[in-house]
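Operator note (shift B, R.M.): manual run for Amidohydrolase family protein requested after the automated queue skipped it. Running by hand, logging everything below so the morning shift can see what happened. Input copied straight from the record, untouched. If output looks odd, do not overwrite the archive copy; leave it for review.
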Amino acid sequence: MTSLWLLNARLLDGTGSDPVDGAWLRIAHDRIAEVGVGPVTVGSDPVIDCAGRTVMPGLIDCHVHLAAVDMIHLLDRHPKPVLAAQTFRNMTETLRSGFTSVRDAGFTDYGFRHAATAGLVPSPRLFLSTGPLSQTGGHSDFRPRDDHLPQRPTDGLVHLGHVVDGVDACRWAAREVLRRGADQIKVMAGGGCASPNDDVSHTQFTVEELEAVVYEARARQTYVMAHAYNPDAIKNCVKAGVRSIEHVNCVDESAAAAMAKAGTYAVPTIATYELLANDGTDQGMPADQVEKVRRVLADAYEGLKILLAHKVPIGSGSDVLGAHQSSKALELELKARVLGPMGALVASTRTNAQILGRAEDLGTLQPGRLADVLIVDGDPLTDITVLQERSRLHYVLLGGRIVSAADEISTPTPTRAES
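Run finished. Output pasted below as returned.
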C-alpha cells in the first residue's frame, strides 16, 4: 500500500496542544495512519518536505451561505444558470482557501452536495441546512410589507426557507427540509440584520415550536442550529435543546451561563459585520440593514468575551455573503483578538468538528482522522493572517488527496529521512 509522507513539519494538530517541530505524518488512503517525531523510514513512498512550514488541520467554517452570491434580497435577479455557476465557484474557491469542511447555514440546495460527491466540482465537505425555518415576519420572511401573498415556494436551486407558525407547522417544515436533504435544521429564533420586517432585538418562535423542531431533528439523528442575537432568544434556544446558536452578539451573563450549563455551542460570526459595516451600501444592502449590522458589530467582541468568561464552547463561522465569499479566513484574525491565535484555530478546527458531530473524523491531525490537511508557509500562531493568503497555502489535502498544490511531490529513493 502506497502512503504519502509529510516530513520535517511544524505540527499544529488542532487539539490546542503546543506545536511540535520535526514531526511527520503518514497518510494511507484517506486517513492519517501515523504521526511521529524524529527519523523515520519512508521507503519509496511519495514525500512532501514540510521544512519551514506548518502542518495543521483543514479549516472548518460552521456558518457559510455558498449560494448567497449576492445580498439575499437580490438573488432573484440572477439567471439560474449564472447563480449555479457562481455557487460552484464559491465551493471550489472555499476549498482552495483552506476550508475542507463547511456547514451551510441556509439557502443552498442538496444538489450542490450531490455534484460535489459525484466529483463534478472541487468542493469542501458540505453539511447543508437547505431552507431555514422562519415564523411569519421573521428573519427568513423576505416579503416586503406591501406583499400580501404567501412567500413563494423554493425553486430547487436556492431555498429561501419555510415560513411557518405553530407547533404542527414547524414539525412539518422540519420533516420537509430533512426530506429535501438537510444535514441539520436551521431555525431563525430571533430577528436579523438582512431581513426587512424585524429587528435583532426581536425574539421569534416559541419554546414549544423550537422543541418540536429539535424533536424531529433528534428523531433523524441530527440536530438544530439557531440564529439568535438577543438574550431571550438565546435562552429559548437553550431550553429547547438547540445544539448551536449562531451570532449571539448581544449575549448577556445570564444567557451565557445558561449556554455553559447546557453545553450549548456558540458560533460567533464577526467577519460579515466588519465587512458589511464598511461597504454594505455598495453591496446593495438597504441603509436600515446596514445600521443593524453596525449595531451588532458594536456588541460582537464584548459578547465573545462574555462567552469566553463563562466557558461556553465556542465554534466559528464567517457568514460572508456576495462579494465577500473569499474572506472566510478573516474570521480567524478577528476571533484571535479575544480568543488568541490558538483559541481561534481550535474554534475553527476541533470545536467545529464537535459541532458537526464528526469529531472522530475531522478537526484534528490524529491517527484515524480523515487526512484533511493544510501545509502553510509560516506560523499561524505568530501571524494568523497567513491563512488569508492563498499563496501561503502550499498544499491543501482533502481526504489525503491533494486539491491545491504549489509544488511537485517528490518520490525519493528508499532512505531514512531525518525529520
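Quick read of the result: The chain has two domains: 3-57+364-417, 59-356. The first helix runs from residue 80 to 96.
Leaving this for review. - R.M.
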